[in-house]
Specification:
Largest sheet: 5 strands, antiparallel
Structural class: mainly beta
Shape: elongated
Order of helices and strands: EHEHEEEEEEEEEEEEEEEEHEEE
Helix content: under 10%
Number of strands: 21
Radius of gyration: 30 Å
Number of helices: 3
Length: about 375
């Protein structure tokens, strides 16, 4: 989670190695004019402090997959269109007002979502031994009543006949609507030309649906919920190459600004670039951050700031810099918020920044 996490590198105006070489040249010019004889084979060690930005990013509701993304597969038995496991049969032309509903629970956290845009991906495979005729509709509703015109979220009409064993898919963005914690899906105005001597033997068609909230306007979450979620992300320290520099000591600073009405615990794990196993974690224990408060429309009334620092040595920072992927682990909960619902708008967010505050020692003889 598009992904709202952005990894940035800090570009120095003058590379450290060039700076050190420049100092060596200045020292050589100075000794050439000096009455004292200086041994250039014994140049001093030069100390410097660096503040390296390692990670900077922002998390919003749309980044939390557990809350905004739901996938499910339904089996639709032949009995739902009036035919059981009966062997050979002659099927007259069919016209069925509604097949379903097939219920899809979106998240145990969600009570209501007003969305600006919602993505629906559907794949249907006809495993019945008869053709499904063009004009059959795939409908997505907020309630189980197929005759309620006010509960319709989206309806898609099958543009062609779908023969036995054939698959049909579509991907659509729905704008400016709302849904509850459950999505009800129907095959409406189901029709078929039927067929003679077709064989029903427990046939089940399959309906795969992926529903993803892209942009929210307002969300109601249930209070008293908790979960753990992880996300693997790309990282790149290649532009922060320190060459022959060695860090005498240093700290990694972790800054968080939470303007989401959700309590967070955050940990970052670094992965080996070859086998992708965890080699290190940023914090000894996850950083726990309380959620903010929101007004009636879900806008944050303030933010909760938190920070921590950990000491780090040369060997550890060099190992971390080898990583090309990291896992961000979130512990989320709405514990402590008054029931029944916690409200948030598209103005809520969580910002995080990680910097490396390093004291570096440069041996000019190694340049």
């Amino acid at each position: 989670m598009q992904n709202y996490l952005i990894f940035v590198s800090h570009k120095r105006s003058t590379p450290m190695k060039n700076t050190a070489c420049g100092l060596a040249i200045v020292m050589m010019l100075f000794t050439a004019c000096s009455k004292y004889n200086t041994n250039l084979d014994e140049l001093p060690t030069w100390n410097s402090d660096w503040l390296l930005p390692l990670v900077k990013g922002q998390v919003s509701f749309e980044n939390i997959k557990e809350l905004n993304d739901s996938k499910i597969v339904f089996d639709i038995p032949a009995l739902d269109i009036g035919y059981a496991n009966i062997g050979l049969a002659n099927v007259p032309p069919l016209s069925i007002a509604n097949v379903g509903p097939y219920k899809q629970a979106l998240s145990s956290w969600l009570h209501l979502v007003n969305f600006d845009s919602l993505q629906i991906q559907l794949t249907f495979t006809n495993r019945f031994p008869i053709t499904i005729a063009a004009g059959t509709k795939f409908s997505f509703r907020r309630t189980a009543d197929p005759n309620d015109p006010t509960n319709l979220i989206y309806q898609h009409t099958l543009p062609k006949d779908l023969t036995p064993a054939e698959t049909y898919s579509f991907d659509v963005i729905v704008n400016n609507n709302f849904l509850g914690d459950t999505l009800y899906q129907f095959l409406e105005q189901f029709s078929s030309p039927g067929g003679n001597n077709v064989y029903f033997a427990g046939n089940k068609s399959t309906l795969k649906v992926d529903v993803k909230i892209i942009d929210i306007n307002r969300v109601e979450l249930y209070a008293g919920k908790s979960l753990v979620e992880t996300d693997t992300i790309d990282i790149d320290f290649s532009k922060e190459d320190t060459g022959t520099d060695t860090a005498s000591y240093g700290k990694v600073n972790f800054f968080v600004e939470n303007a989401l009405p959700v309590n967070f615990g955050i940990q970052i794990y670094f992965l080996d670039p070859v086998n992708l196993k965890i080699t290190d974690s940023l914090l000894n224990n996850p950083l726990n951050i309380l959620g903010c408060n929101t007004n009636a429309t879900g806008d944050p009334t303030g933010s909760i700031d938190a920070k921590t620092s950990i000491s780090i040595n040369t060997a550890r920072i060099e190992e971390i810099k080898k990583s090309r992927k990291a896992i961000i682990s979130y512990k989320l909960n709405t514990l402590g918020y008054p029931p029944p619902y916690v409200v948030l708008s598209d103005k809520t967010y969580l910002k995080l920044q990680i910097t490396g505050d390093l004291h570096l020692a440069f041996n000019l003889n190694s340049l």
